[in-house]
Amino acid sequence: MSAPLSASELSGVFSQPAPDRYTFFLTEATLQDKVWTLKGAGGFVTFSDEEGRDCFPFWPAPEFAEALANDDWSDCEAEPLALAVFMERWLTGMTRDGRLVAVFPAPDGSCIVMDPQTLLQDLEEERNQPD
C-alpha cells in the first residue's frame, strides 16, 4: 500500500469487520515497517473504554488515522512510529502501565481493543511469516 488511498478505498477498508481490519493492520504494519497514531498539541490521543481504561489507537497508514482527526481530535495529525520502536518501547511500556491498544478504529467507533502484549505477539508472528 504505497500509494495514497482514495476516499472509496478508505471507506471500503473501514467498512470491513474489526477482525478483518486487525488482520489488515498486522500485514500492512509489517510490510510498511511502521504504524500510525494521532498526535496533537496535548500529545498522543487516547480514549477510555467502557471500563475507564486508557486506550491508544493505531492504524496501518496515515490516511486511516487522518480520517479520524475530527471532533475532539481535530487538532491532531498522523504521526508515524517505526515498527521496532512501537513493538519494543510502546507496547512493552503500555503493558507495564496497564494501558490498552485500540487497533484500527473506524469512524463508526468499531475496533479491536486488546492487551498490548497480545498485539506484540501477533506482530512478531506476522514478521516471522515466510515471504
Mean pLDDT score: 91
For this entry, what is the oligomeric state of its chains? single chain
Amount of helix: 40-55%
Calculate the terminal CA-CA distance, rounded to whole Å: 16 Å
Which runs of at least 5 residues are low in confidence (pLDDT < 50)? none
In the CATH hierarchy, what is the class? Answer: Alpha Beta
| Percent strand | 15-25%
Main β-sheet, spatial strand arrangement: 3-4-6-7
How many helices? The count is: 5
Which class do the helix and strand fractions yield? alpha+beta
Radius of gyration: 14 Å
CATH homologous group name: Uncharacterised protein PF11572, DUF3234
**Which outline best applies?**
globular
Largest sheet: 4 strands, mixed
Order of helices and strands: HHEEEEHEHEEH
CATH architectural group? 3-Layer(aba) Sandwich
List how many beta strands DSSP finds: 7
Q: Write down the domain tally.
A: 1
CATH overall fold name:
Trna Endonuclease, Chain: A, domain 1
Protein name: DUF2750 domain-containing protein
Organism: Thiocystis violascens (strain ATCC 17096 / DSM 198 / 6111) (Chromatium violascens)
Pfam families: DUF2750
InterPro entries: DUF2750
